[in-house]
């Protein structure tokens, strides 16, 4: 039901005249404490989301994952930031949760709210915020745009170190098992934030700074035609009909070369192993242009109305014969089954005797 509501909300907004959203691959959720801010019951003029702006960060090296202890009734503020390594993004849906942690150390949330660019809709679990709870929220106006953007804030009270320590990890939203973003397309596309890309806030301990995902590494892909080796991702290699060799490069790995493989009179450029599996004859150093595979040629001569010889396709056609790559022997003579009265294409002849 939550996913349905989120989808409907996003569909309703997609009619807006926004630019096409970017690919949200590679995003991280950063848990970040702002030591300069202390929660009070009187929020600043721009709200607690706006209060983050003077202390904004833009690199993993600036992330603070240790929540400062403050004596009651004051509280500490920390934010969940959406970040990408190099690019600004545009998106309309955000969803995450908090994993398990010790509530005896972090005892109370005073406030927990999304940081919408303008307005939005939130669908939290009944116990949110809390251990193993989650929330999903979408904009209903202006989308989120930029990089290192605060999407949520928490204000709460933690006990001092004498009560122990705990970490509050960013995790999946339990009802959906999803943690990530949805863009503003119609329908919206979802992008998962992996485990290593989720931070954790430490209480009386150091939390976890997430890692930006590394782009997939291309490796040597052996393909059946020149240049025989290209650097490609696994799926790209398979699409080329190649064999992927992870941890190898084209500079150091010698890809086997394809050569002509004769299966009857039909020629295909194959690796030796594959040619053997087809029962073919592999011709190293030979290509299929021109066809090097001999087969039956049927032709008429005054002295031989059912002439049959084993020859190459080019020679057969030069003799005005009818080439049959599916036949490889003149004993017994397969040409005796017909005597063409006029020149006919090989395809037409084959169709007559299938």
Give an account of the 3D structure.
With 354 residues, the protein is mainly β. The chain folds into three domains: 202 residues, Immunoglobulin-like (Sandwich), CATH 2.60.40; 39 residues, no CATH class; 59 residues, no CATH class. Strands 2, 5, 7, 8, 11, 12, 13 and 14 form an eight-stranded mixed β-sheet that branches. The protein has a four-stranded antiparallel β-sheet with strand order 1-3-10-6, with no helix packed on it. The protein has a three-stranded antiparallel β-sheet with strand order 16-15-17. The two termini are 58 Å apart.
Low-pLDDT segments, ≥5 res = 1-19, 349-354
Q: What is the C-alpha radius of gyration, as a whole number of Å?
A: 35 Å
Order of helices and strands: HEHEEEEEEEEEEEEEEEHEEEHEEEHEH
Beta strand %: 35-45%
Which descriptor suits the 3D outline? rod-shaped
Keywords:
6 helices, 354 residues, mainly beta, four-stranded antiparallel β-sheet, 3 domains, 12% helix, eight-stranded mixed β-sheet
Topology:
Blueprint: H1 2-13, E1 28-39, H2 47-50, E2 66-67, E3 75-83, E4 89-91, E5 93-98, E6 106-114, E7 120-124, E8 133-139, E9 144-146, E10 149-158, E11 166-171, E12 180-182, E13 190-192, E14 200-203, E15 219-222, E16 229-232, H3 234-239, E17 243-245, E18 259-263, E19 266-270, H4 272-277, E20 281-283, E21 295-301, E22 304-311, H5 313-318, E23 322-324, H6 346-352
Parallel strand pairs: 2-14
Antiparallel strand pairs: 1-3, 3-10, 4-9, 5-8, 5-11, 5-12, 6-10, 7-8, 11-14, 12-13, 15-16, 15-17, 18-19, 18-20, 21-22, 21-23
């Amino acid at each position: 039901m939550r996913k349905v509501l989120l989808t409907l909300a996003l569909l309703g907004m997609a009619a807006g005249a926004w630019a096409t959203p970017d690919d949200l691959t590679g995003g991280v959720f950063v848990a970040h404490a702002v030591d300069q801010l202390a929660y009070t019951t009187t929020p600043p003029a721009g709200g607690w989301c706006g209060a983050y702006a003077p202390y904004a960060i833009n690199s993993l090296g600036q992330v603070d994952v240790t929540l400062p202890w403050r004596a009651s009734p004051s509280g500490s503020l920390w934010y969940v930031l959406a970040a990408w390594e190099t690019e600004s993004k545009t998106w309309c849906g955000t969803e995450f949760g908090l994993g398990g942690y010790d509530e005896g150390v972090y005892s109370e949330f005073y406030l927990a709210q999304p940081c919408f660019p303008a307005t939005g809709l939130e669908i939290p679990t009944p116990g949110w915020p809390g251990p193993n709870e989650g929330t999903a929220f979408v904009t209903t106006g202006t989308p989120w745009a930029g990089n290192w953007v605060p999407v949520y804030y928490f204000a709460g009270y933690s006990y001092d170190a004498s009560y122990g320590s705990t970490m509050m990890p960013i995790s999946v939203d339990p009802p959906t098992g999803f943690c990530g973003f949805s863009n503003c397309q119609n329908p919206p596309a979802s992008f998962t934030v992996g485990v290593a890309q989720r931070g954790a806030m430490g209480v009386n301990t150091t939390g976890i700074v997430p890692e930006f995902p590394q782009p997939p590494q291309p490796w040597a892909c052996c393909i059946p035609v020149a240049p025989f080796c290209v650097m490609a991702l696994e799926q790209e290699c398979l699409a080329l009909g190649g064999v992927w060799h992870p941890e190898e490069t084209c500079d150091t790995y010698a890809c086997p070369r394809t050569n002509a493989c004769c299966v009857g009179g039909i020629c295909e450029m194959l690796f030796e192993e594959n040619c053997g599996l087809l029962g073919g004859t592999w011709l190293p150093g030979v290509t299929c242009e021109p066809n090097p595979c001999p087969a039956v040629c049927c032709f008429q001569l005054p002295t031989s109305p059912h002439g049959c010889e084993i020859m190459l396709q080019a020679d057969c056609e030069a003799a005005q014969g009818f080439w049959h790559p599916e036949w490889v022997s003149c004993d017994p003579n397969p040409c005796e089954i017909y005597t063409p009265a006029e020149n006919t294409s090989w395809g037409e002849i084959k169709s007559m005797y299938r």
